[in-house]
Amino acid sequence: MESMTGFGKASFQIDSFKVTVYIKSVNSKYLDLSLKLPKRYTFLEEKIRKLIIEHVSRGKVEVVIKHTGIPAEGREVFLDLQTALNLKQALETLKETLDFEEVLTFSDFLRFREYLMLEDKEEEVDKLWEEVYPPLKEALEQLKASRLKEGMYLKEVLKKHLEDLKKQITEIETLKPQVIQENTEKLRLRLQKFAEEIGVRDLDENRFYQELVYLLDKIDFTEELNRLKVHLKHFEETLEEDFPGKKLDFLCQEMFREINTLSNKAQSSAISLVAVRIKDLIEKLREQVQNIA
Predict the structure, then answer these.
(1) CB 27 within 8 A of CB 38
(2) Domain residues of the chain, as ranges?
């Protein structure tokens, strides 16, 4: 199981030229990639994205690639000779027109650079990939290790919350017979009082129990309790999957819905207190689940 939080860094040295890759990831609903590349590696964006997707399933991932020094092949120099000739002629014409006595020197001419351009030498994509791939792959491996380590910690935290949750569910099961008995008596007295108020002296016992069963069925929380236990078991099993984040989040929602319905049906202050504790634990589960890929 992986966390979505992690970091990786790696460098690749070629003589005096060095390429460094930084990768960090944080929580996100989906896989969200952000690349910051130097001009030299712009054409590698698609290959870089593809490699990241192979290693990362989910999270907001930021990749920064930097290089220092100058590649062994250096930079290319482009000379616009015609522009240089035109510039020289223009300067000489200006000198003669304004009647300057000073000699026109090469230093004066060098103040104008329009005819001289320095550009990075265009490289083949495969060669550039050989520079980027080693540090990128190593940084991704570090990121993966970091996310797995954090994932192991989160798994233990979740298991602790699950154990606490089981104890609370067991308490509801213990309270259930008493609550059913109390609710039965409350309903019996309520129906009896209602019969007396409307002047019914002889209450049909069969009809009374039919109504009682109907009302008890409306407040019976057995089904919700069973579903809550099933969701809990499914949660434990899902923890062992590789990328369980979205499924665990869904199960948290379902467990919260079941305990909410159960609490409303039970009409018991004792169960309401336990339900509050269960809701708090489910919320703690969900907070941690948001960090899981």
Answers:
(1) no
(2) 6-72+124-145, 75-120, 149-289
Q: How many CB atoms lie within 10 A of CB 247?
A: 16
Q: Are 164 and 281 in contact (CB under 8 A)?
A: yes
Which one of 3.80.10.10, 3.20.20.30, 3.40.1110.10, 3.30.230.40 gives the CATH number of domain 6-72+124-145? 3.30.230.40
* Of 146, 134, 178, 156, residue with least CA distance to 271: 178
User: Distance (Å, rounded) from C-alpha 126 to C-alpha 277?
Assistant: 59
Percent of the chain with pLDDT over 70: 87
- What per-residue confidence (pLDDT) applies to 123? 58
- What is the spatial distance between Cα 205 and Cα 212, in angstroms, rounded to a whole number? 10
- CB contact set of 49 (below 8 Å; sequence gap of 6+): 33, 35
Which pLDDT does position 78 carry in this prediction?
A: 66
* Residues of the chain with confidence (pLDDT) below 50: none
pTM comes to 0.73
Give dist(CA 177, CA 179) in Å, integer. Answer: 5
Alpha helices in the chain (DSSP H): 45-55, 81-98, 106-109, 125-197, 205-219, 222-238, 245-266, 269-289
What confidence score (pLDDT) does residue 117 get? 65
Q: Max CA-CA distance within the chain?
A: 135
Helix, strand or coil for residue 140? Answer: helix
Q: Taking the CB of residue 78, how many other CB atoms lie within 10 A of it?
A: 9
Phi, psi of 178 (to 5 degrees): -65, -45
